Amino acid sequence: MSTADYQEKIPNNVGLADDRRLQRALESWQPGFRDWWAEMGPELPTEDVYLRTAVNVGREGWAHFGHVPVSEYRWGVFLADPRQDRRIAFGEHKGEPAWQKVPGEYRSALQRLIVIQGDTEPASVEQQRRLGYTAPSLYDLRNLFQVNVEEGRHLWAMVYLLHAFFGREGREEAGELLRRNSGSEDSPRILGAFNEETPDWLSFFMFTYFTDRDGKYQLGTLKESGFDPLSRTCEFMLKEEAHHMFVGTTGVDRVVGRTARLMVEHDTDDAGPHGAIPLNVIQKYLNFHYSVSLDLFGGETSTNVANYFSAGLKGRWQEERRKDDHLLIDRGAYVDAVEDGEPARVEVEALTALNTDLRDEYIADCESGVKRWNRILAEAGLPHRLALPHRAFNRYVGAFAGINASPSGEVLTDDEWEAHKGAWLPTDTDKTFVASLMHPVYEPGKIASWLEPPRNGINGKPFDYEYVHFL
């Protein structure tokens, strides 16, 4: 088990003190990070927040909880403990020792993968920076800050790799990660979903459920990488990412639960007049965030991803548990396509279908959330149900980008889409209504009217604990 060294200017378990050149390089990047955090991080001023801070990378007892000024959070560099004699599990290098240094022939590809992953981390902080002003409870405000500081640490994780293994180009890319900003016209974030607004807490819960779940699957493929430092970095990031998805899953639980309660109490299908978010609006937000997140997986087929797999750079989700040859040569797989203007599935070479393989894993995982939200409705005695829309719905990347599809998968003309999209995606009226509910509640033990309190507090603390102290 590797314990983090908190005596260093940059907490770490990678022995920075033994590599003065790397230590100086990261310390020279650190002020830029702090400037970025001050300018683009959470806006709401606080004295301190009850946060967890990583102290080691073991399975148990890996984090310390306590009140910390957010601007003084100890962001650091942590890799999971190495696996003795780890071997590459897939591709042309299957069975060879995992690489501790970047293979020259794969340098550019690995750098690109790390930059794209790194770019998503500060983007979500930028998207969420004003949410503190409308937090529905101190518990939720604390969770927002926890997500934010850990996304900041995930940025550090990728920046460490760029500095440690990619020389001058890596240092330049690390600087660019701070210069791009979510939604900027001149220098936007690389992936489209990370330039969308997160203007309210329903959006935040949907983002942390759907978009952070995409992050889980992307990190899971990089965790399989034959480049061992990247693999170990992502393994530890996944440990932190689990909390982000917990925030989304339970957040939507609580929104649906409150809506269901008021529907039953007032015998109505529309809980909006009673201070909750109507189910049809929840469904619209679900439709939007799910479809935008599906686009993050890229096209259904990709020769680049096939090459990453063959080279041993990026595997499949839970690669080592798969019961095949881990080479995928002369194998087929089915992917989404459009034939005769209708959604279809066609067979292609399995190596080129890895984006679809990952997206299918993601979709199955998303279904589990919908099932639990529908269980809440069923337990309330309501016949209403939420549902994931068809994978062709509202798509701008891949095979379905060229068609209009309803949530059930029916192909529509442009005029039909324009006439009906307001029933399926959030309208300005919906957004205005949701925004009207976003009043801050900063009193311990109190909560906004549009969601339920959580079943449990953080780290054994009660819901009415003072998770955040204000200036």
From TrEMBL:
Keywords, ordered alphabetically: Oxidoreductase
UniProt EC number: 1.14.13.208
Coiled coil: none
Recorded GO MF terms: oxidoreductase activity
EC class of the enzyme, as a word: oxidoreductase
InterPro entries: Aromatic_CoA_ox/epox, Benzoyl_CoA_Oase_BoxB, Ferritin-like_SF, RNR-like
Superkingdom as given in the UniProt entry: Bacteria
PANTHER family named among the record's database cross-references: 1,2-PHENYLACETYL-COA EPOXIDASE, SUBUNIT C (PTHR30458:SF0), PHENYLACETIC ACID DEGRADATION PROTEIN PAA (PTHR30458)
UniProt-recorded name of the protein: Benzoyl-CoA 2,3-epoxidase subunit BoxB
Source organism: Actinoallomurus acaciae
